[in-house]
Amino acid sequence: MMDAVQKFKKEFGYTPVGQVIAPGRLELLGNHTDYNQGLVMALAVDRVLQIAFAPRQDGRIELVSTGYPGKEIFSRSRIKKNPECEWANYLKGVLIQLQDRGVYFGGFNAAVHGTIPAGAGLSSSAALEMATALAIRRMYPFVLTDSGSMRLNEASHPPDFKERILLAKLCRDAENQFVGVQCGLLDPLSSIFGRANQAICIDCLHETVEHFPFIGEVAVIICNSGVTHHLNDGSYNQLRDYCRNAAKKLQVTSLRKMDLSTLKKRKGNLFHREYDCALHVVSEIQRVIFGEKALEEGNLEQFGQYMLQSHESSRDLFRNSCRELDTLVALARNKNGCYGARLTGGGFGGATINLVERKHLGDFMDGMAQDYQHAVGFDPDPQIIQIVEGAGDIDRMPRILTRQSGIVTKPSDQRWVLDEL
Prior knowledge:
This protein is 37% helix and 23% strand.
């Protein structure tokens, strides 16, 4: 499989002027809390989205991808959805948001290559959106501000903390308004605020980001349920509606403002599904608070228990799990060396995240593959995940750890390349 640079050369016949890379994310704790202005913990991971690009002078935009056939061609002045090329809609949504904020950009050619499995819950969409925003920023330098944007005459410096928040909001708005998924800030913030070997702790009310060391004799394993989730089919938005309706009936601006005891006293104000969703979100925010303390103390056993409780709440209250995800978690929690397991991301399929003692890695991965194959008839393909740096220019990114499968390496000349799988 060719990477973005090779694809660019093949399709356009010359070398791109630059490349950006954006990692996917794994939600560690805090399921569906972000759009409720809650707390969430995540990891930026070594499954990435890469864009190679070059500007052009005619206002024409041409997009190609290593994962999809054909070429998407349109004008910067006529950006519309194309149901025959859905992957490009994520880029187009970002372009529209940039225009709405007063960002000038001309035409360009771009090639996309990703190693994030679509529909697995690792947020390939947010990585693609963030990479798009950063690619435009490289080609047509600008700085986002609270009031819009400033156009620069020369190459822009890496975004500071405030601008990274604004870029994440732009990507969220692109997905909300153009793609139609009412997601929160978790995914784009995780992609741009990632740090190697650290967990990202996001406060979606106060828009703050902290990092906690995530090291020791523990590994992060993902297991694929084999069920592809489709968050734009309406299920995700329906859950958000339940949460919004519950907050309105409870007379708070968001479920972040509701405490557990008050929620239980006001249970009668809500429909059954509204109450269950609210109970999940309020208790999940508490689990994130407790989880942060457990990480600070290095207590991975306790943190793993919060992960298991989180999955049970997603399964029983929020109901965004499925039989396959439940089977994976049930199998994992009975394996030696497994601290905790849960679904990750929007749910309705995708993958589970598992924390496993390194000395038990081989037995855990072999056992999960065999047991899930026997139970469901599908190989979950357990894989070790590395925690990496956030999105940015490929030649500026400090480090992405090398995986056994060799997706990303750092050669001696200090430049980044994406190897073939």
